[in-house]
Design a protein that fits this description.
Distance between the termini: 41 Å
CATH architecture of the largest domain: Sandwich
Radius of gyration: 18 Å
Largest sheet: 5 strands, antiparallel
Structural class: alpha+beta
Strand content: 25-35%
Strand order of the largest sheet: 1-2-9-4-7
Shape: globular
Oligomer: single chain
């Protein structure tokens, strides 16, 4: 699953490139800190029935694997959503400069997690889906079409995992949003036709 590995010995850091869909981290012992250099990484867990739940998306310059700082067991998976380059740091060799940046980035990630938890607990499903589409449009899954409109490369299964639902229900809501004219949906692709309208729905 790994395309390429290079080592910068002066920084005691590995730079590893992963294909889309590659699992970077599994549940278990944690002993390193990870920083995304490019691409997109999804942290997710699974229940006993095999249903996935996205915990958060990691964007470039963000860190993950922070449980290693406290010697905790990792409880989730980290998956490369797009082709991604990840920098790996040994906990024992983190410099003060990296530690300062790490603290700031983890604080930002924690704040985003609070927003996600609040959304999952208090928002209707259509609002959660609209918010997730908007969020993904600002990641490596998003792109700008020739007509100036944004689109994302995401399946209904991936959206279901992001909003804590199942594919069948998400597909129904996606259809409703398409009929309202705020999006167009194709195979593995969603076009944001009315971003302002989508924002209003996300705020419901």
């Amino acid at each position: 699953m790994i395309l390429e590995r290079t080592v910068t010995r002066s920084q005691s850091m590995d730079s590893v490139q992963y294909r889309p869909g590659a699992i970077i981290l599994f549940p278990g012992k944690a002993d390193s800190i990870y920083r995304l250099k490019s691409g997109l990484v999804r942290l997710h867990t699974m229940d006993n029935e095999g249903n996935g739940l996205t915990l958060r998306y990691v964007k470039p310059t963000d860190f993950f694997g922070e449980e290693a700082l406290a010697g905790l067991e990792r409880q989730h998976f980290a998956e490369s959503v797009t082709e991604s380059i990840v920098e790996i740091f040994s906990v024992n060799l983190i410099t003060p400069e990296i530690a300062l940046n790490l603290n700031a980035r983890l604080a930002e990630a924690l704040n985003r997690s609070y927003v996600t938890i609040s959304r999952l607990a208090g928002k209707r499903l259509r609002a959660r889906i609209a918010a997730s589409i908007l969020e993904l449009s600002e990641t490596a899954l998003g792109s700008l079409r020739p007509d100036g409109q944004k689109q994302i490369q995401a399946t209904h299964d991936e959206l279901a995992a992001a909003v804590g639902s199942v594919r069948e229900t998400v597909t129904k809501v996606i259809g409703e949003l398409a009929r309202e004219g705020v999006i167009d949906s194709g195979y593995g692709k969603i076009i944001l036709r009315d971003e302002t309208g989508l924002m209003k729905i996300a705020a419901e």
